[in-house]
Amino acid sequence: MRRVVCGLALFVSVASSVAQAQTAAPGAVPAVSHANDAAYLVGAGDVLAVTVYRAPDYNSVVEVAEDGTIVLNAVGRVQASGMTPAQVGNEIVRRLQSGGIFRDPLVNVMVQTYRSRTVSVLGAVGKPGEYPLDRGGLTITEILARAGATLGVGGGTVRVVRRDGTQQDLPAEQLLAGAANQMLQPHDTLIVTESATFYISGEVQRPGNFPLEPGLTMERAIALAGGITQRGARSRLKVTRHEGAADAIVRAKLQDPVKPRDLILVGARLF
């Protein structure tokens, strides 16, 4: 019985809140916006979904025109560009009130499609394409996470191309450390370059392709591959190295640096 009473009380409380919102003084202009849109500034090309509570005939989905306005039935042309969805909703409420259509309408405005404030992500990411700046202060790493970038040690470079054509190359390790992370602006482009890699085979535990860490030596490369096998010899290292248009095979020592696209072969002992 107590649960029934509590549930009834909760229903009455919610119904009362709705009733109060509809009977508020004419000066009040309630408008509700989607949480992610709170700081988003609408621009030309965005598609807005406008809902008037309990008045479905006034609901509409409209695209913001090049002049920054939207056109609604019974309301006319409303300025939208440069405003948050909540501010657009407030203006629609004011128009509905001043036109004598509704006394205290409840209006909800949401961005259905983001087009005016987007950034492009290209290159070595899982999901290249355009991404909306759907809230203020979005940073490079946050957008890269959405695009499925997998940055790590030696994780390549992210080139930031600004709308004015200026460019900046940011090492992945600096971005991950937070030293180079930056806020993005509309129409920025991020180009992710894969990290340099090397390949190691022969008498190692885990032959394969590995990212090239800064300052990597042959000895460290062997360690990354799990170390040598029982038959392996650390002194028997051959490297196929890309030099210009041709490949060269060179002998290497443990302290020699590994270069991008090196093919390292760890040989076996002679006895």
Q: What does this molecule look like?
A:
This protein has 271 residues and is an alpha+beta fold. The protein folds into 3 domains: 46-113, wza like fold; 118-194, Roll (Outer membrane lipoprotein wza fold like), CATH 3.10.560; 197-268, Outer membrane lipoprotein wza fold like, CATH 3.10.560. It is 20% helix and 32% strand. The protein has 5 helices and 16 strands. It has helices at residues 2-22, 85-98, 140-146, 172-177, 218-224, and strands at residues 31-33, 47-52, 60-63, 69-72, 76-79, 107-113, 118-123, 129-132, 157-161, 167-171, 189-193, 197-202, 208-211, 232-243, 246-252, 263-268. It has a 5-stranded mixed β-sheet with strand order 8-7-11-9-10. Strands 13-12-16-14-15 form a 5-stranded mixed β-sheet, covered by helices on one side. A 4-stranded mixed β-sheet has the order 1-6-2-3. A hairpin with a 3-residue loop joins strand 4 and strand 5. The longest helix has 21 residues, at 2-22. It is rod-shaped and about 100 Å long. Residues 36-111 form the Polysaccharide export protein N-terminal domain. Residues 118-192 form the SLBB domain. It is a multi-pass membrane protein. Residues 1-21 form the signal peptide. Residues 198-242 form the Soluble ligand binding domain.
